[in-house]
Amino acid sequence: MLVCGLYHPPKPNKDLIGFLAELSDGFLDSTPEGTVVLGGELNKLDLSEVNRQTGLIPLVDFPTGGDSKLDNCLTNAPHLFAKSYPTTAQTKTDHLGFIVPAAKKLKPIRTKLAFRDCRQQYKDALYKRLVVLTGPLSGSFPALMISLTPSSRPYTC
Prior knowledge:
Strand content: 15-25%
Strand order of the largest sheet: 1-2-4-3
Order of helices and strands: EHEHEEEEH
Structural class: alpha+beta
Distance between the termini: 56 Å
């Protein structure tokens, strides 16, 4: 997923549409199933031209600054999002904010997790059982003493 924040100044000095086309095309070439989400203050950017060159679809269809759509969110996967709605910003601004909710409510993923309780009382019980196990083991397989030197072959038995 490619998520970017954008600011298009009222008097731009660079071609933002060309940059967005290169950015989204480069990402989608390397990740064909990827999702692109670009949002921010776009001012007077021609959204129909953005859509024509990049295939990105604007999600905000209401004015966010006076009578103009100054802020917007663009995506190549509009089916993942529900209808956007306006909200007042928490900072001093003449713009409205917007919220773009997910289209589907996903079920929470529940996972069962198993772990060992390693408190001291259980360690003591384990050590007692090991003594019971190693007694017959020592009787059946006597321990051999060997000497190893740095030049010994590994796995000498």
